Amino acid sequence: MSSTSQFSTLYSAEQIQKKVKDLGAKITKDFKGKAPEMLCILKGASFFYADLIREINLPLSCNFFGISSYSGTKSTGNIKITLDLISSVKDKDIIVVEDIVDTGLSLEFIIDYLKSKKAKSIKVVSLLYKPGQIKVKNINVDYYAFELTNQFVIGYGLDYNEAWRELPFIAQMNSLN
Q: How does pLDDT run across 89-128, given as a tens digit for each residue?
C-alpha cells in the first residue's frame, strides 16, 4: 500500500484491471445471446465504464445518465439529474455501471427511473460497494469489483470536490485539509 500525506493506495491499477477483466468475463457469460445496453452513471463511473465495456465480448450499446448527490465526502440524499438518458431504454436489457454504491439512494433513484422508462431488465455492476452503508431495501448489486467499509475513496474516476479523478488507482483520503 503506497501513500502520500494526502492519501493511501487501497487498490493498484493492476488490481483494478484484473477485477475489470474478471467482471467483463462474468457479464459476457451471463448475457450470452443478448445485446445489453451499458448505462454509464456520470461522472464517477466513466473510467470503469470505458475499461469494462472493452472486456465484454458481446454486441452492446452505450448510454449515459448523469446524477449528483454528493457534497464533499457525504451523500446529501438529494438527487438531481445532471444529464438525462442519451437514448431510450424501453424494452432493453440494461446494465447500470456505477462507480460506488454507498447508501443505495442514488441507485434506487436510477432503478426507479429506468423502470418508469420501461426497461426490460436492469442489472447493476459497481466498481465499489459498501454493503454496510446501505439505507434502502431491495437494492441488489449484481456484480462488483471491491467491497469497502466506510472509507472515503478517490481515483479511477472517483473524486473529492472534482479533484483526483485522474489517478490510475483507488486511494483512501488521509486528510481532507
A: 999 999 999 999 998 999 999 999 999 999 999 999 999 9
Q: What angle do CA 72, 95, 75 make, to 5 degrees?
A: 15
Active-site residue, from 102, 112, 142, 159: 102
30 is catalytic: no
Strand partners, 82: none
- C-alpha of 44 from chain center: 7
- Domain ranges (residues) in the chain: 17-153
Question: What CATH number is given for 17-153 in this structure?
Answer: 3.40.50.2020
User: pTM for this one?
Assistant: 0.91
Average pLDDT, the chain: 92
Which residues pair with residue 121 across a beta bridge? Answer: 93
Strand order in the sheet with 170-173: 7-11, 170-173, 153-154
CB 58 within 8 Å of CB 36:
yes
